[in-house]
Write a structure and sequence with these properties.
This protein has 201 residues and is an all-alpha fold. The protein is 78% helix and 2% strand. It has a two-stranded antiparallel sheet.
């Protein structure tokens, strides 16, 4: 290997190193700009919340919670949830929002985002939550997570949602309601498997 070849090789290595250095610098610059943009969006969202609840603003903990929300949801989803939370939960005294109601409204923002996302994926979910509310008000005991799970399974097995609501309004207790839903699911499963069922009547 002659001197010219060695020099050419080193020159090429230096060029590649310089290119890598520039790429790394560009990556850091890009990340810094992303962080600045993220900070800007958080401030904008925070200001939007303050407009919904005049006289109040998010503290540092509130902004941390907002950052977590932004990692899970789109900006427009968060803004829509803020608007709904403020309209639904904020109460006023002497024309000004009360602190307790503002704090409650803020705590509801994430849940509203979740429910709306579920509604997109599962349009029937709002009705099922409503039916669960009927059960909660009527029955002395209710396993809420299991009730929702059973109703989801029933809907996926083509249960009529109006029938589920009617059953929730007539069931005498949790055991009767649960047994009724599980019987329906068993019948549907048996039908899918090609089994025949007989009635006594």
């Amino acid at each position: 290997m002659n001197d010219t070849t060695v020099l050419d090789k080193r020159h090429q290595q230096l060029k590649e190193l310089q290119e890598r250095k520039e790429q790394i610098e560009m990556m850091f610059e890009w990340q810094k700009n992303l962080a600045k943009l993220d900070d800007h969006v958080i401030e904008q969202l925070s200001d939007y919340w303050s407009e919904r609840v005049p006289g109040f603003s998010l503290n540092e903990n509130g902004k941390k919670a907002l950052r977590k929300l932004k990692r899970r949801f789109e900006v427009q989803e968060i803004m829509a949830a803020m608007k709904t939370a403020a309209e639904t939960y904020v109460r006023t005294e002497n024309g000004k929002p009360t602190q307790d109601s503002v704090e409650l409204a803020w705590k509801k923002v994430g849940g509203i985002c979740n429910v709306r996302r579920q509604e997109e994926d599962k349009p029937y979910m709002q009705r099922l939550l409503y039916i669960r509310g009927i059960l909660r008000n009527r029955l002395s005991y209710l396993n809420e997570p299991l009730a929702l799970q059973l109703m989801e399974r029933a809907v996926e097995a083509n249960a009529n949602i109006d029938s589920l609501e009617s059953f929730a309004k007539t069931a005498r207790n949790w055991t009767q309601w649960r047994q009724g839903i599980e019987d329906f699911l068993s019948r549907e499963e048996a039908t899918e498997n090609g089994e025949s069922t007989e009635s006594d009547g």
